[in-house]
Amino acid sequence: MNHSKLENFEEQRAGEPARSLSDTKDDGAPIDFRPVDLPGLIALWCLAVIVFLQFFTRYVLNDSLAWTEEIARYVLILVAFLGAITVTRKGTHIFLEFFYRYIPHVAGKWLTVAMEALSCFFYGYMAYVAVLLALKTKTKMASAEIPKSLVYWAVAVGLAVMAAYSLCWLVRKLRQNPEHVIHDLEAHALSDLSD
Known about the structure:
By secondary structure, the protein is mainly α. The protein has helices at about 5-15, 40-60, 65-90, 105-135, 150-175, 180-195. It has 6 helices and no strands. The longest helix is centred in the middle third of the chain and has 32 residues, at about 105-135. It is about 70% helix and about 0% strand.
């Protein structure tokens, strides 16, 4: 693509925000929230309540609840893996876009495709490992009669959903021409700066 065509392309797309996989139209909604994001949000609020309860009972009532520390640890794991679903869905995992500016667009596209394929494989393999771990775990939590395997099953589900979204991104990037892929990367980087 020659220089003038690239400038025309950039002018046409200059006003467009970075897009998510699930974007179908621009309805002006300030928050991009989907039902798949709900488990991560619920885990985050549960963690906030548990940590507050732990702080309140320990430092205000001077009689700490024994279960809050262990449960908070496991819920923090859920926040990380269920919250990562949202980040993967939006395609907003952190990355170094610096190198994409100095390589040809075709090489940039295939580097992006390779990174997305690697991410998809990693999420899928780790989901498989989490399932194996959940099947082998027979113990319960020390402070509550809750099987530890539930945490590993939730992690496996989170990783499987991340692999599915990563596969969608991979297919999308394979279908796009190199200029669109690089433009989306730049739009993503610029949207992070404007936030």
